[in-house]
TrEMBL record:
Residues 10-70 form the HTH tetR-type domain. InterPro entries: DNA-bd_HTH_TetR-type_CS, Homeodomain-like_sf, HTH-type_TetR-like_transc_reg, HTH_TetR, Tet_transcr_reg_TetR-rel_C_sf. Residues 33-52 bind DNA. It comes from Dactylosporangium sucinum. PROSITE patterns: HTH_TETR_1 (PS01081), HTH_TETR_2 (PS50977). This is TetR family transcriptional regulator. GO terms for molecular function: DNA-binding transcription factor activity; transcription cis-regulatory region binding. Keywords: DNA-binding. The keyword DNA-binding applies. It comes from the Bacteria. The lineage of its organism: Bacteria, Bacillati, Actinomycetota, Actinomycetes, Micromonosporales.
Length: 189
């Protein structure tokens, strides 16, 4: 029997996460049955659950993957860049991503165990935002008259508003100008 390389395992895992993200976005957590996951991913339940313990672990992996991508972008380019990247996404990528964000939000409100496990991921995004703002302050490009914690909350609220705006299917016209305004609001004048 031939050995499977780590690259092949990683590629299969990414394939599963991509299909699962779409399935969770389309059907919600409860509606993403194992049968639907199999159809969307194009693999058997055995192949899927060889990589993930159960559906809950699979959903958490999708959400963690999205959060890790977000933390990396925030750390390097800031939260406004995450918002710009969100605007630049195309269907079905944006639908899948938004669906998992909304499902995370729902589960944070309704599933205390999930909320407890998710707290570290939320803090990672918040910490990356604060650290990025601190570096910008030290570089002299960030306004100094408002505490970093307040600026971080402002950016997080703008991000949450953008996610809601896109999730409800509202028009995306002029949102780049809105993001320019958000960015200008935190910059030194």
């Amino acid at each position: 029997m031939p050995r499977v390389s780590q690259d092949q395992l990683d590629a299969r895992r990414r394939e599963i996460l991509t299909g699962a993200r779409t399935c969770f976005a389309r059907h919600g957590y409860e509606g993403a049955t194992v049968r639907r996951l199999e159809e969307e991913i194009g693999l058997s339940r055995g192949a899927i659950f060889h990589h993930f313990r159960d559906k809950d672990s699979l959903f958490l992996a999708v959400a963690e993957d999205d959060a890790a991508t977000m933390v990396a972008t925030v750390a390097q380019h800031g939260l406004v860049q995450v918002m710009r990247d969100l605007l630049a996404r195309t269907e079905p990528d944006v639908t899948g991503w938004l669906g998992s964000q909304l499902e995370v939000s729902r589960r944070l409100r309704t599933d205390p165990e999930f909320a407890k496990r998710w707290a570290a991921r939320s803090e990672a995004v918040a910490a990356a935002t604060r650290e990025r703002l601190q570096r910008q302050l030290e570089a002299g490009v960030l306004r100094a008259d408002v505490p970093i914690g307040i600026l971080a909350q402002f950016l997080e609220l703008a991000y949450d508003g953008l996610v809601l705006h896109l999730a409800t299917g509202r028009p995306v016209q002029d949102l780049e100008a809105v993001l320019n305004l958000v960015e200008a609001a935190v910059r030194r004048q």
